[in-house]
């Protein structure tokens, strides 16, 4: 696949968390002078269309924005459901904005190595899956809706219910470094990847 070819899917950037541990909206945090939302938006340029999903639009967000379908639910599963409800595409890439080292190249790698007959294509790093940097097929939409209705908000539980293809990532694992606290951000800055 040529690097200039768009992936035949939409991208949805999740910013909906309350960021309690971080203390302020994570999407607005900066790494090397770049807001995380801007970094994530840029790496998703490999998709046909891109959207931001959250609880409510902040005036500093200038990108196409969608509000979560179910306002009262605080879970990435709500963002995934909202994306699949909105999208007309068969495949959709879901990414949380708190992966400041993620790259377009890694996203392409996940897609290229994934089984397109699955309901979800999820990277697995050191035996741990990352469901908020993954591809979801529209086939998963109904199962996700059922779980939300039943108040099961765990994305990992959904992955057990649907046909999930786990893509092992053995190199560039640093790209999956998650940032939940200011200490995490400081650690990423200090390591100077």
Question: Might you state the CATH topology name?
Answer: Spore Coat Polysaccharide Biosynthesis Protein SpsA, Chain A
Distance between the amino and carboxyl termini: 27 Å
Radius of gyration: 16 Å
Largest sheet: 8 strands, mixed
What structural category do the secondary elements indicate?
A: alpha/beta
Secondary structure: elements and pairs:
Elements: E1 7-14, E2 30-31, E3 34-35, H1 36-43, E4 47-54, E5 65-67, H2 76-86, E6 91-96, H3 104-113, E7 120-125, E8 128-129, E9 133-137, H4 141-149, H5 155-161, E10 164-168, H6 182-191
Parallel strand pairs: 1-4, 1-6, 4-5, 7-10
Antiparallel strand pairs: 2-3, 6-9, 7-8, 7-9
Helix pairs in contact: 2-4
Characterise this structure.
The protein is of the alpha/beta class and 193 residues long. The protein has one domain (7-191): Spore Coat Polysaccharide Biosynthesis Protein SpsA, Chain A (Alpha-Beta Complex). Helix content is 28%, strand content 24%. The strands form 2 sheets. Strands 1, 4, 5, 6, 7, 8, 9 and 10 form an 8-stranded mixed sheet that branches. It has a two-stranded antiparallel sheet with strand order 2-3. Helix 2 packs across helix 4.
Please give a quick description of this structure.
The protein has 193 residues and is α/β, with parallel strands linked by helices. The chain is 28% helix and 24% strand. The model has no long low-confidence stretch (mean pLDDT 90).
